[in-house]
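dumping this here so i dont lose it
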């Protein structure tokens, strides 16, 4: 019973983690381009 409940939770966690990682990567890229343009 527990495994059946855990599988969708793990999928949700993986999806959230990849989403957060993508957002962080975009923010990091934007910050880098902004600092490079100033110099």
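and the seq i came up w/
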């Amino acid at each position: 019973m527990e495994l059946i409940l855990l599988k969708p939770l793990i999928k949700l966690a993986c999806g959230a983690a990849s989403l957060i990682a993508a957002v962080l990567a975009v923010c990091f890229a934007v910050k880098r381009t902004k600092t490079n343009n100033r110099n």
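Residues 22 and 28 are 10 Å apart (CA to CA).
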